[in-house]
Amino acid sequence: MTTIADVLYTANQRLQEAGVDTAALDAELLLAHALQVDRTWVLAHENELLPSELIARFDELVARRAAREPLAYLTGQRWFFDFQLRVTPDVLVPRPETEELVERALHWLRAISHALVADVGTGSGAIALAVAKHAPSVHVYATDISVKALRVAHENAERLGLTSAITFLHGDLLTPLPQPVDLILANLPYVAEVERAHLMPEVGEYEPPEALFSGPEGLDHIVRLLDQAPSYVRQGGCIILEIGDKQGAKVARMAQRQFPGAAVNIYRDLAGLERFVEIDGIESH
Ligand SMILES: C[S@@+](CC[C@H](N)C(=O)[O-])C[C@H]1O[C@@H](n2cnc3c(N)ncnc32)[C@H](O)[C@@H]1O
To answer: What is the pLDDT of residues 74-91, one digit of tens each?
Structure first.
């Protein structure tokens, strides 16, 4: 007879051997997913026996995780900010540092009501949804080059009851926007092609390449966004970019050249890494 404690022990060993940092936690979350309960329930019922078909389903999930498939693709969900997002292999798994970009955006938005916001490269819709949820007077344009990602983002908006606050637009960077906006938010691809070989398997082998890579230095998307931006920002507007931790100085220099009258600042994330460039007080052309 096999108990919950037994299968968790074996799965933990297997995931540790595969190099998964959070082996015990992942095993618990995968079992909770297979049982359609939450993790607390799993931990409170360790002596319960499991039927063999359930064990087989769980083993299959553990095997995929041991092959380093991201946990969020296996469970189909991920917490972001204060809500659950559905994620699929068509979208980047939203990262905790992107929640800090949302905090910065909400802080900036406190000063204006009925602002227009753009979330460029929306992916799962994470940024657009968090901003629409917490700054209710805004309207958000969420763009992506990937039709499949837009489909996931739209579904998330439907589930969260936020479709009327967000317009989803297909196309390249800012070009699908129907009008200039007050605030541009962008977590665009920023990994350099040369880093491809050094990425964790979860990222390099499973996440969509078009969500990750951006030319030889990882800056192609940001350079093009800054080129397009003057026609798409309103007077006094702001751009907040998420960047790679070694790109701060370069991006800030480019931003200052493009917007000489604006205040350009680099901010660190909670891990202490340079992660955001904010270009505020933009003078529109
Ligand atoms: C790093 S992911 C970020 C996804 C989401 N914003 C987040 O923070 O989790 C970058 C996103 O930009 C999209 N993207 C890539 N190139 C683009 C382009 N030229 N125009 C618009 N979106 C683009 C990708 O499809 C992907 O969804």
So the answer is: 999 999 999 999 999 999
Q: What is the whole-number distance in angstroms between the Cα of residue 90 and the centre of ligand 1? A: 11
Q: What domain range includes position 42? A: 4-67
Per-residue burial over 136-152, b if 16 or more Cβ lie within 10 Å, else e, is eebebbbbbbbeebbeb
Number of domains, the chain: 2
Q: Which of 41, 67, 93 is the last residue of a domain?
A: 67
**271 CA to centre of ligand 1 in angstroms:** 23
In a domain, 178, yes or no: yes
Domain assignment present for 272: yes
Query: In angstroms, what is the span from residue 188 Cα to ligand 1's centroid?
Result: 5
Task: Tell me the C-alpha to C-alpha distance, in Å, between residue 233 and each of 133, 153, 238, 275.
Answer: 22, 24, 7, 22
**Confidence (pLDDT) at 285:** 65
> 143: CA distance to ligand 1 center in Å?
8
Nearest atom in ligand 1 to the alpha carbon of residue 80 is: 9
pTM here is 0.96
Distance (Å) of CA 57 to CA 28, 45, 64, 79: 14, 19, 11, 23
pLDDT score for 111: 87
Backbone dihedral region of 151: left (phi > 0), alpha (psi from -120 to 50 degrees) or beta? alpha
Last residue of a domain, one of 67, 88, 109: 67
90 plus 191 within the same structural domain: yes
Q: Choose one of 104, 122, 156, 228 to mutate for the ligand 1 pocket test, by most ligand atoms within 8 angstroms of C-beta.
A: 122
